[in-house]
Design a protein that fits this description.
By secondary structure, the chain is α+β, with helices and mostly antiparallel strands. The chain contains 20 helices and 24 strands. It has three domains: 193 residues, 2-Layer Sandwich (Heat Shock Protein 90), CATH 3.30.565; 138 residues, Ribosomal Protein S5, domain 2; 246 residues, formyl-coa transferase, domain 3 (2-Layer Sandwich). Helices cover 35% and strands 22% of the residues. The chain starts with 8 loop residues before the first helix and ends in a 5-residue tail after the last helix. One of its GO terms (biological process) is mismatch repair. GO terms for molecular function: ATP binding; ATP hydrolysis activity; ATP-dependent DNA damage sensor activity; endonuclease activity; mismatched DNA binding.
Length: 618
């Protein structure tokens, strides 16, 4: 007697629903993607009880013909693809043909649509999860489609027990709407929960409107502290907004990455972004970004998981390198005073507000000082006893030439201040004083600038050491006794394939056998490191991401330590010219907004905030 039998349609759909429909948010995601694929320009979402009681999604897309309504609720029925060639270059968000059937198997689903092909009347298809029988009847409906899902998991109580509180489920659902709203600026979205309007996003067709939508979804503080990037290196293009390091987060909760309009979570992408922010983020913090990667659909496989959150790139190494290099250069190129922040704004807003580096709270702060490394401070000998404990100089902005010359004559700095009086005030302004031997006080066009002189000089020294390394190359030393490392055959093949990478980074690795490598030479800077573990980590990265920066990262850690010990210390008295020299070096040094450990190097207090402190104008 045969023990193999065919599953019923109902049970098969419920099994499939276990992969596609995890919670109310999953339902909204699938239905919204169908609406976007249908060419909708306006999508309305109504939910009750976090989506467990009711989910209603209405769009103004092309609609579904009456004859196609029963087929739309059947498994493996779709209008998106017809052949294997279509599957290899999917351009739509949906393509599996499983969503509506899976949703209908665990809820009371009503599908009402009108394609206006024959009349202005629409048709309704009712599907209840017990027997999956579809009933089609006329129903008034404008052009477009409405999907109504009631009593989710009413026939699978075990699944319903795993749902969280109403608030938690709605938060997940709202996040899905946010992602879709960020992926399609040309579509308007509205979201209501228990009759209360939560979001009402109009279509965004201009750059300013797109920025307004991002601010509505991610918060205005993100846009105030983000830079817009657009890098095009065919066949790849990366554009969007990346938060400055000062706008870091305690969790990775403000990270949106889209591939051809599809939001994804990918380890390769996350690794590339982490590498780009490595030198500028405080430990344990996470960057914020809204980024869009565009490439040929044939170069990315979206048929990896039923939820379509994961993708595979045909050439993952080139994608990783492109994302890393684009973000790395974009973050390094931001300089104070440039209108390169999102929306053409500077780092100082009209209210003088920004976000706290460690807590994320809004507070007054200025922009960041980043650029290309140049000279360091004047020799230390010029500072001893030259400046009083608190020495102040008048700002050259807004002062008359007589005032500047009077101060210059008193302090013997007539030539420098006279030149400054005729020039435009630089982004970090001119030094006024040194506070407690730790901070530099300066005045620029916006107000007061405070600089942590050790942190700032540490970054300048660090970037100079890195520049010297890239110019002079990496010094290596041969090992007296070559070190053998037992590895797998795959790792041996990788070592041979990437031999040039190891040579460029100062390591000489030879093959000693089918499953053995021999380390013959290492960088001088890493002579005290665990080179065997380093080699294993590099090979692991090559397997996972197609590239590795571990050797450079270890070298950077050593250079960072050297820069820390070689930078000006607290209680070192600096003269006004020395302080101004440090400010100018900051303006010309890459990533000067943070020290090597990710701490901020300077902050700004605008006149608006200073006026609030002293109740001026009230």
């Amino acid at each position: 007697m045969s023990k193999i039998h065919r599953l019923s349609t109902r049970l098969a759909n419920q099994i499939a629903a276990g992969e596609v429909v995890e919670r109310p948010a999953s339902v909204v995601k699938e239905v919204l993607e169908n609406s976007v694929d249908a060419g909708a320009t306006r999508i309305e979402v109504d939910v009750e009880a976090g989506g467990t009681k009711l989910i209603r999604v209405r769009d103004d897309g092309m609609g579904i013909a009456a004859d196609d309504l029963p087929l739309a609720l059947a498994r493996h029925a779709t209008s998106k693809i017809t052949s294997l060639e279509d599957l290899e270059s999917v351009g739509s968000l949906g393509f599996r043909g499983e969503a509506l059937a899976s949703i209908g198997s665990v809820s009371r689903l009503t599908l009402t649509s009108n394609d206006q092909s024959q009349s202005s009347e629409g048709n309704s298809a009712l599907c209840e999860g017990r027997d999956m029988e579809v009933q089609v009847k006329p129903a008034p409906h404008p052009r477009g489609t409405t999907v109504e899902v009631r009593d989710l998991f009413f026939n699978t109580p075990a699944r319903r027990k795993f749902l969280r509180t109403e608030k938690t489920e709605f938060n997940h659902l709202e996040e899905v709407v946010k992602r879709l709203a960020l992926s399609r600026f040309d579509v308007g979205f509205s979201l209501r929960h228990n009759g209360r309007s939560i979001h009402n996003l109009k279509p965004a067709l201009t750059q300013a409107e797109c920025q307004h939508r991002v601010a509505s979804v991610c918060g205005p503080a993100f846009m105030e502290q983000a830079i817009h990037i657009d890098h095009d290196r065919p066949p790849l293009r990366l554009w969007g907004w990346v938060g400055l390091p000062t706008f870091s987060r305690s969790q990775a909760d403000l990270q949106y990455f889209f591939v051809n309009g599809r939001v994804i979570r990918d380890k390769l992408v996350a690794h590339a972004v982490k590498q780009a922010y490595r030198d500028v983020l405080y430990h344990g913090r996470h960057p914020a970004f809204v980024l869009y990667l565009e490439l040929d659909p044939a170069q990315v496989d979206v048929n990896v998981h039923p939820t379509k959150h994961e993708v595979r790139f045909r050439d993952g190494r080139s994608v990783h390198n492109f994302i890393f290099s684009s973000l790395h250069r974009a973050l390094a190129d931001v300089r104070p005073g440039q209108d390169s922040l999102a929306g053409g704004s500077t780092a100082v807003t009209a209210e003088g507000e920004t976000v706290d580096t460690l807590t994320g709270e809004i507070r007054s702060q200025g922009g960041l000082a980043w650029g290309a490394a140049q000279d360091l401070l004047p020799p230390a000998g010029t500072a001893s006893g030259a400046a009083p404990y608190y020495s102040a100089a008048p700002s050259t902005a807004g002062n008359s030439m007589e005032q500047v010359r009077a101060y210059a004559a008193l302090h013997g700095q007539s030539q420098e201040l006279a030149q400054n009086a005729d020039e435009e005030v630089p982004p970090l302004g001119y030094a006024l004083a040194q506070l407690k031997g730790i901070y530099i006080l300066a005045e620029n066009a916006h107000g007061l600038v405070l600089v942590d002189m050790h942190a700032a000089h540490e970054r300048i020294t660090y970037e100079r050491l890195k520049q010297a390394r890239s110019t002079e190359g990496i010094r290596s030393q041969p090992l007296l006794v070559p070190q053998a490392v037992a590895v797998s055959q795959r790792e041996v093949d990788l070592a041979l394939e990437h031999s040039e990478l190891f040579e460029r980074l100062g390591m000489a690795v030879d093959v000693a056998g089918a499953e053995s490598l021999l380390i013959r030479q290492i960088p001088v800077a890493l002579r005290d490191s665990n080179v065997e573990q380093l080699l294993r980590d590099v090979l692991s990265d090559l397997i996972e991401y197609g590239s590795s920066d571990r050797i450079e990262a270890h070298q950077d850690e050593i250079l960072s330590t050297m820069a820390c010990h070689g930078s000006v210390r607290a209680n070192r008295r600096l003269t006004i010219p020395e302080m101004n020299a440090l400010l100018r070096d900051m303006e010309a040094t890459e990533r000067a907004g943070q020290c090597n450990h990710g701490r901020p190097t300077w902050t700004q207090m605008g006149l608006a905030e200073l006026d609030k402190l002293f109740l001026r104008g009230r």
